[in-house]
Structures are given as C-alpha cells and as structure tokens.
Design brief:
There is one protein chain. The chain is mainly alpha-helical and 26 residues long. The longest helix is centred in the middle third of the chain and has 24 residues. It is rod-shaped, with a radius of gyration of 11 Å.
Length: 26
C-alpha cells in the first residue's frame, strides 16, 4: 500500500519536472 502511494508521488514529481522542462524549452 505505501509502495503504491510512493510511486504515485514519484510519478507526480516526474510529470511536473517534465512539464517545467517543456515550458522552459518553449
């Protein structure tokens, strides 16, 4: 259960990281 919560947090962090990178690239 906590592993699934941890991977959800990691996924959200990764997506927002990618989003920021795309914005700064544009």
């Amino acid at each position: 259960m906590s592993a699934s919560i941890h991977s959800d947090i990691t996924f959200k962090r990764t997506s927002s990281d990618t989003y920021k990178r795309k914005r700064s690239y544009l």
